[in-house]
C-alpha cells in the first residue's frame, strides 16, 4: 500500500471553499504571530492548488505559472504587490492595521 504525501493529505482536507478559507485564515494568523513567511507562502500555494489552480491564477493575475510556482514555493522572494494580487484572486484584501500603543 502506497503512503500519501503531506500535500495529498492537505489537498483532501481543502475540498470546500469554507475549508480553504479557514486554512488560509489560520495560516495568516500564525504568520502574524511567528513571522514565518515560508509557511504562509506554502499555505497560500495549497489553497491555490485546491481552489482555482495555478493556470486560472496566472490568467487572472497576468503572472506566469512559472513565476507563481516560484513565488509560492517557499524559496521565492515575492514582492508585496505579487502577494496582494494572489490574495485578491483568493478573495482577500491586504490591509495594514495599526497596533495599539
TrEMBL record:
Coiled coil: none annotated. Pfam families: dnstrm_HI1420. Residues 55-97 form the HTH cro/C1-type domain. GO terms for molecular function: DNA binding. PROSITE patterns: HTH_CROC1 (PS50943). It comes from the Bacteria. This is Putative addiction module antidote protein.
Amino acid at each position: 500500500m502506497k503512503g500519501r504525501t503531506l500535500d495529498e493529505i492537505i489537498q483532501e482536507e481543502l475540498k470546500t471553499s469554507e475549508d480553504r478559507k479557514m486554512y488560509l485564515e489560520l495560516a495568516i494568523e500564525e504568520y502574524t504571530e511567528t513571522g514565518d513567511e515560508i509557511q504562509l507562502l506554502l499555505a497560500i500555494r495549497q489553497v491555490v492548488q485546491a481552489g482555482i489552480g495555478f493556470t486560472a491564477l496566472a490568467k487572472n493575475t497576468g503572472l506566469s505559472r512559472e513565476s507563481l510556482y516560484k513565488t509560492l514555493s517557499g524559496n521565492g522572494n515575492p514582492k508585496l504587490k505579487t502577494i496582494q494580487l494572489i490574495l485578491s484572486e483568493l478573495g482577500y484584501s491586504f490591509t495594514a492595521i495599526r497596533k495599539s500603543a
